[in-house]
Design brief:
78 residues, two-stranded antiparallel sheet, two-stranded parallel sheet
Length: 78
């Protein structure tokens, strides 16, 4: 009985927290970061994203619209 109560409480807590959070993809972002190399395929919301840690070229800031026009997709770490 205790396990069922704790599981229910944990699930309700999780659902409550999720109802107040905004997914990153739905958050309004006007600019993103790219690794300015020919092999870069992703865009990043944060310049400090771990997906940019291997970038050996300049990290540039562009509009989200421009990144999508360049064929970039959202980094998996975001």
């Amino acid at each position: 009985m205790k396990t069922k109560t704790l599981t229910t409480l944990a699930l309700l807590s999780f659902l409550t927290l999720m109802s107040f959070s905004t997914p990153i993809e739905d958050a309004p972002q006007t600019s993103v970061y790219l690794c300015d190399s020919s092999g870069g395929k992703k865009y990043h919301y944060s310049k400090g994203c771990r997906g940019l840690s291997n970038c050996q070229h300049e990290i540039i800031k562009v509009s989200l619209e421009d990144a999508k026009k360049r064929g970039k997709t959202l980094c998996g770490w975001e």
